[in-house]
Write a structure and sequence with these properties.
The chain is 34% helix and 22% strand. A 6-stranded antiparallel β-sheet has the order 6-2-3-4-5-7. Strands 1-8 form a two-stranded antiparallel ribbon. A hairpin with a 4-residue loop joins β2 and β3. α5 runs antiparallel to α6. The chain is elongated, with a radius of gyration of 21 Å. 31% of the residues are buried.
């Protein structure tokens, strides 16, 4: 029996030494990519005191862009018609926009009800994406919200990034995902791009910031990394 046990232990040890590198290699590679991705871009960025205010949020799992509902560049009520919403959005003065995994993001009622397997699938298996749009009156400013003021040209880059991410119908209108809203003032829309561990909601926010010339890491898949180089006032650290 002892010989059999020793033989079994040696077999398990050989299996473990062969499997462990296979499991750890992609993890180390991912962490290395994330570490290198923290190198900042747009190092000369300064928030424009007289510019258009844009807010960026990032929680422990998700990131959003918060924009004024209308200005001389765009009225978001024309892009996202009131007919899309279940409630009255006429009093809204801000629009919150986020991008993410379609099945996990649009089909999970709240983050607290999310399932581990669904979250892991969203991260490690490239999947269809969607966009959540939320019209709101006033915006709270928690510690995880950072505000910057952009020039009109910089703001147009953020607008273009959002518009290019929307999947549209043949007539140019956005595509609603029926029955996926969480309240009366939000909707989920079909979006372009595949979601994965290498292309998360935080990456999407990071690309918007990069396109507008805002200082951020060049690769931002993890929460908080999108505004690692911004103070709460939006100035570059």
């Amino acid at each position: 029996f002892r010989n059999q046990w020793r033989s079994l232990r040696r077999s398990f040890r050989r299996l473990f030494t062969r499997v462990l590198p296979v499991l750890l290699t992609p993890i180390f590679l991912y962490l290395a990519i994330v570490a290198i991705g923290l190198i900042p871009v747009n190092n000369n960025f300064q928030s424009d005191p007289d510019g258009i205010e844009v807010k960026f949020t990032s929680s422990f799992i998700h990131a959003d862009i918060v924009l004024p509902i209308a200005n001389d560049i765009i009225d978001w009520r024309q892009e996202f018609s009131s007919d899309l919403f279940a409630g009255d959005t006429s009093a809204a003065d801000w629009v919150v926009v986020g991008w993410g995994d379609r099945e996990y993001f649009a089909r999970t009622p709240t983050w607290h009800k999310s399932q581990l397997l669904s979250a892991l699938r969203a991260l490690f298996w490239p999947s269809e994406s969607c966009m959540q749009v939320y019209f709101t009156r006033g915006v709270r400013s928690p510690q995880d919200m950072h505000s910057v003021k952009l020039t009109p040209a910089q703001y147009r880059q953020v607008v273009q990034h959002i518009q290019n991410s929307l999947r549209r119908q043949s007539d140019g209108t956005v595509q609603l995902i029926p029955g996926s809203n969480r309240g009366k003032h939000d909707v989920f829309l079909e979006a372009n791009g595949l979601y994965s561990a290498l292309n998360t909601c935080n990456n999407w926010i990071g690309r918007a910031m990069q396109s507008a010339g805002i200082r951020t890491g060049w690769f931002t898949p993890l929460p908080k990394t999108v505004f690692l180089y911004l103070s709460s006032s939006g100035k570059a650290n």
